[in-house]
């Protein structure tokens, strides 16, 4: 009799276990396409029904089964690598996207770019040197000069516009960093309380993992796991999330809340209950999307804009110097041809004269005008070579980023595949698990039916023979 009741306990426990297994398989299947979902697996544990005793002996054999845990199929080391490589990829992709857009705006090589305008400006002076008295040739010089100045101003405006957009973008990313950090801190608390109450917190853990990955993409955040399962998050080596508390990520200088430049270098600060810390800059500072934007705003675009400013300054100085050595149509000494403000840069480059007669094409005054000075002006400065070096350098940087991004994409993709194999849902595998649980459930139910029949015979039919 005792053995029969023990079998009932085992069969009932098997029913409960297989019911959980079916529930887990169903949850996996229904979340197969859910971003960030980590598949679960029921881990069973054998539970003995025998109680150790010194002076007694049990005739029960075997034991029951219980749910040891519903395990999330994660690998902490793989998760760490995935977050790190996604942060690196975000850093490169952000720069590549921005610089590719700027490169498209440069439009080189092309018929409408700055380089073509420089060549047209030189050719106009050459044409004037062969016909120094022609009004049309003089007007052509002024027209090509204005086209060149405008091309430089447009390119500077495009770069400045991209910088303005990225400063706004930077503030938006900082806001998203703070939202994600606050979300992790809240989930840390909720997970701890939920699991202390004996409730499964798998869904909360999935959400927290997604936020940790997003923080890595946004700012190159590094996540570590405490002994109690809570996440601590650092950015640039400084704490942003500690348990259930999150600091506030702030733009300390360089960009105003409205997205304007304040003239200072871009720096960041974390304000928290444990103190306020200014983050390091450069490679030791924030990474991810935030680091990519910062790199573009502090180094790449200012460097290119400085190159345009230098070309405009050299062009204006060389042309003005040579133009002053010549004489205009009236025999007067040549005046300033280009106006240029070094405090403003290439955006200030303008043609200073509007009357074609003021173009100083001749090297002599009086009636014997020639085109010698116009010929010299066609060779003034090395704007074409300097501009070509600048554009080639920028193009090389963009191409290098593209190669690095392609390599990082391949590495990140291989890690994502490994994560998917570890934590992703395989519908075929889940179907097999579901069918296994179904058959096991049916077997346990059949065992209960058999035991019911055995006990019915034992209780209701035993001793009835001969009555």
UniProtKB/TrEMBL annotation:
Its domain of life? Bacteria
- Family per UniProt? Belongs to the flagella basal body rod proteins family.
**Domain Flagellar basal body rod protein N-terminal positions:** 11-37
Name the Pfam families for this protein.
Answer: Flg_bb_rod (PF00460), Flg_bbr_C (PF06429), FlgK_D1 (PF22638)
Compartments annotated for it: namely: Bacterial flagellum; Secreted
Identify the residues that the record assigns to the Flagellar hook-associated protein FlgK helical domain, covering every copy: 99-338
Q: Does the keyword Secreted apply?
A: yes
The Flagellar basal-body/hook protein C-terminal domain is annotated at 422-460
Q: Which UniProt keywords apply?
A: Bacterial flagellum, Cell projection, Cilium, Flagellum, Secreted
Give the organism, scientific name: Nocardioides aromaticivorans
Annotated protein name in UniProt: Flagellar hook-associated protein 1
